[in-house]
């Protein structure tokens, strides 16, 4: 998520460790406690920094428009918003493009709030209350799986396994987008407050590659205040494409 760095330029943020030796189950419990107590609005979803909303949405919509223009994303039936929270990304980024958007989040109360926040059921599909560490997306369903500010909540191993299951969830020519804060200097930093890791981009790409994904397009988010980690948008596709007549 969007944390402030100490220097404003690099990744030595206060209160973080280079890695965690903590038991993953305890980390997931910590995350659930943290997110179930956060404010159920845009500010809560943005880690208290409301000023990020406009540039974040603009950056994501521009990124999706490039994916559309370059025929990377070609079908606009079903999308999945991972770590959807109250549905901020669903409402402002995915619904304008996709016929139906499904949401998945660990915290039931946040998904419950999404009905009011989004303001319509039209275009909303299923809402799954589950941690991504165990969630299995429905098979061959999604033209786009969007994973924003939640990949850092999973251990390296669970993120790789989740991406493997996401591949199974892709429709033919489907795409996965990871939008995430990244550290620099090659270090992964653990944030104890919400049980979350900030990884270097190279590690995110390595874990994606381990899952069977290849990089298609990436860009850096612009327009954020100085002093935050860089945020990258990364479009990935399976190395072995999902075929039309696979089943
Ligand atoms: C920083 S917020 C981002 C919300 C949304 N992606 C956005 O950008 O507005 C992180 C979200 O991830 C959810 N989350 C945290 N750990 C999770 C996990 N293991 N599985 C699924 N969701 C999780 C939280 O409940 C919260 O809604």
From TrEMBL:
EC number(s) per entry: 2.1.1.244
Enumerate the residues binding S-adenosyl-L-methionine. Answer: 83, 88, 132-133, 148
* SUPFAM superfamilies documented for this protein: S-adenosyl-L-methionine-dependent methyltransferases
Which GO terms of type biological process are on file? methylation
Write down the chemical reaction(s) this protein catalyses. N-terminal L-prolyl-L-prolyl-L-lysyl-[protein] + 2 S-adenosyl-L-methionine = N-terminal N,N-dimethyl-L-prolyl-L-prolyl-L-lysyl-[protein] + 2 S-adenosyl-L-homocysteine + 2 H(+); N-terminal L-seryl-L-prolyl-L-lysyl-[protein] + 3 S-adenosyl-L-methionine = N-terminal N,N,N-trimethyl-L-seryl-L-prolyl-L-lysyl-[protein] + 3 S-adenosyl-L-homocysteine + 3 H(+); N-terminal L-alanyl-L-prolyl-L-lysyl-[protein] + 3 S-adenosyl-L-methionine = N-terminal N,N,N-trimethyl-L-alanyl-L-prolyl-L-lysyl-[protein] + 3 S-adenosyl-L-homocysteine + 3 H(+)
Which InterPro entries does the record associate with it? Answer: MeTrfase_NTM1 (IPR008576), SAM-dependent_MTases_sf (IPR029063)
Q: Which GO terms describe its molecular function?
A: N-terminal protein N-methyltransferase activity
Keywords, alphabetical: Methyltransferase, S-adenosyl-L-methionine, Transferase
**Cellular component terms (Gene Ontology):** cytoplasm
Q: What superkingdom heads the lineage?
A: Eukaryota
Family to which the UniProt record says this protein belongs = Belongs to the methyltransferase superfamily. NTM1 family.
- Name this polypeptide is given: Alpha N-terminal protein methyltransferase 1
